Amino acid sequence: xxxxxxxxxxxxxxxxxxxxxxxxxxxxxxxxxxxxxxxxxxxxxxxxxxxxxxxxxxxxxxxxxxxxxxxxxxxxxxxxxxxxxxxxxxxxxxxxxxxxxxxxxxxxxxxxxxxxxxxxxxxxxxxxxxxxxxxxxxxxxxxxxxxxxxxxxxxxxxxxxxxxxxxxxxxxxxxxxxxxxxxxxxxxxxxxxxxxxxxxxxxxxxxxxxxxxxxxxxxxxxxxxxxxxxxxxxxxxxxxxxxxxxxxxxxxx
Amino acid sequence: xxxxxxxxxxxxxxxxxxxxxxxxxxxxxxxxxxxxxxxxxxxxxxxxxxxxxxxxxxxxxxxxxxxxxxxxxxxxxxxxxxxxxxxxxxxxxxxxxxxxxxxxxxxxxxxxxxxxxxxxxxxxxxxxxxxxxxxxxxxxxxxxxxxxxxxxxxxxxxxxxxxxxxxxxxxxxxxxxxxxxxxxxxxxxxxxxxxxxxxxxxxxxxxxxxxxxxxxxxxxxxxxxxxxxxxxxxxxxxxxxxxxxxxxxxxxxxxxxxxxxxxxxxxxxxxxxxxxxxxxxxxxxxxxxxxxxxxxxxxxxxxxxxxxxxxxxxxxxxxxxxxxxxxxxxxxxxxxxxxxxxxxxxx
Lengths: 253, 347
Known about the structure:
The complex is a heterodimer.
Chain A: E1 7-18, E2 21-32, E3 36-40, H1 47-54, E4 62-67, E5 70-71, H2 77-83, E6 85-87, H3 100-110, H4 119-133, H5 148-161, E7 166-170, H6 178-193, E8 197-201, H7 205-211, E9 214-219, E10 222-227, H8 229-234, H9 236-243, H10 245-252
Parallel strand pairs in A: 3-8, 3-9, 6-7, 7-8
Antiparallel strand pairs in A: 1-2, 1-4, 4-5, 9-10
Helix pairs in contact in A: 3-4, 3-5, 4-5, 9-10
Chain B: H1 2-15, H2 21-26, H3 30-33, H4 35-60, H5 69-84, H6 90-93, H7 96-112, H8 117-137, E1 139-140, E2 143-144, E3 152-153, H9 162-186, H10 188-198, H11 200-205, H12 210-236, E4 238-239, H13 241-244, H14 247-260, H15 267-282, H16 300-318, H17 322-327, H18 335-345
Antiparallel strand pairs in B: 1-2, 3-4
Helix pairs in contact in B: 4-9, 4-12, 4-14, 4-15, 5-7, 5-8, 5-12, 7-12, 9-10, 9-12, 10-12, 14-15, 14-16, 15-16
């Protein structure tokens, strides 16, 4: 992290076990205010589990997570959301019986800045957020009428409507084509420009290099490397983790 | 708001002729003058309360409660005990029915609502059965505490036109239940409940306190159901396990909500009217009745059960969003509607 940036999120030896398997094993890193940090790693490296730990869906088996200096380990998900940590799900989870607008309004009604906000103000805010992610024209549509890329946008809209200080994005670009990825990148930049810190999981390297100043590589639940994306991606251990030992040797020779 | 006012006005216009038995008799309207009619109309209103109340936890929040009859019984016994044993006046004892039912729901809801899907349904059914058994079998100092197997007799409430009074009281309870649902569906609370129904984890990470919301919905549902039970106890004068904890009611209130349309304001009420009329007709207790070929009078209640079962299956498969949606403007009576419904409900 560059100097002069205040630490917002601090992970200290975060550990989560399922039975005997440590899905996340002593992960330590920090996220500074206003950063965009990428989490990469092969399938099963523990990326989503780590996000679940931060958003309170999983209880930690070890370590601590601190938000603006105070521990949030063991807090219920809704309390963490109210502190200003929003998230999306890799497999989209829209509220199917609601319209696009109502989905976003739920975020506005219950999020960090909820206070005593009523449905009317929440719907106004939902409209602003839908404009930001490019779903304004489809605000009145039922969710079932949305394409996959639009459903991913809705995931982001709902999370942004909670007015988060930190946004956790779980593979919002997976399954999108190149044009759609460019549009989604624009969306992430637009959200970041409103002053939101972003921590994103991504498999598409173009995204990591395109928006992240810093990347954290996970493998078997542990931090393998972290730093500037270009540097990290040239790291031999990272190539090995992704492509296997033999391919890494061939690259070297 | 206009919707509620309209509904109240419409109800009044319909019910105004009922306000005087003499008027009805002199106008020679046999149905309205019949005391049996009041009884049936009161029962229908009672089921409107129960189906509408079930809709709050089962339809809006998506937790299939199979034991809501426990709250009806608890409400009935709360009011019944306060009147029969503590000698309280009825209208003072009545508010305690929803309070005690809601309190009990909050207590059992905390552990129960951690279960999902089938597990919650089965566990709530267990509570429904267990409470009825407890009420009948708890002894204190060698005496059955709540009247035991012989039930509980209440003094008759002294008021002119008793049938009419309890009919109005039950209609008032039904109006309250519908108004509460109307409010819930427009409030922050309601959006939270629907979010829980659609995806509980997604609701939680958006900031919905799922535990508190689920328990509140359960308690609200119980309070309304308990209110109906409280009115029932004084109206019926005699309560026991059979008439305040009938397992049938569990199925009926769910079927009514499904038939009319779960998650809607008026759906459960519409379902309650349709289904209760059918039950009364099949049971042979409607003033208008005719012979059903091949079915003897004794077998009619059994036939009613069979038809209810067939109806339940049919509704779930073909009109999962209820008759309001089916006959409403958004859909047409067509094969494609049924096909779409089948697609939505099948795996």
